[in-house]
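Problem: given the chain below (229 residues), write out its structure.
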Amino acid sequence: MDEIYAIIPVSKFSNGKTRLSPFLNLEERENLLKAMLKDVTSALKDCVDDIYIISSDAEVLDYAKNLDLKTITEKETDEDNNLNNALTQAMDELKDKVKRVIILPSDVPLIGKTNISMLLEQTKFMKFVIVPSKGGGTNALIIQPSSIEMKFGDFSFIKHVKQADKHNFTPMIHDSFFMAMDVNTKEDLGEILIHGDGTETKEYLRSLGISVKSVHGPERLEVERKKEN
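Solution.
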């Protein structure tokens, strides 16, 4: 059994990317999330044996099924940090089916610019592979299911590395600009417009009349959208 499954936790579309409001309205943010999820799963499909979306939201699960993805319905709990609980649940359900899983978020639409096959190849030699996000988080984690405690949240990268040490794994850190690029701010949208050729996400942003230009100031990029007449 040398297969690998991807696990992607997805919260309710209408709850996501609130930091992009009021630059994008609710419907636009929902469509952005759908485009990014499509980019992420499209990039993974030829590299993993199955892709599982775990969510408590019926709309998310239906959308995933329309993309021909496997789904897991997240159980409701009274505990804090539903994300870590959801991932623990998913791994518990999959640990008897597969030797390795790759856990990653749904908002890394530039993932296709990274050599995913090469990254996954490393797991033949390393039992713990981690990709940091630009803000100190974790944007990919490749492990044996349920082999460590999930620590997603603020500054999760160092917490997961400590988990590796605790369980006697040697962590391999894979530093990738494209995989570190999760989308939370207007400037992040600019990065997608610059680097995201061939992605659904870039095409969607362009359809909204959003453009980017370089500036020399506190922010590196200026992201604008065309005003409607």
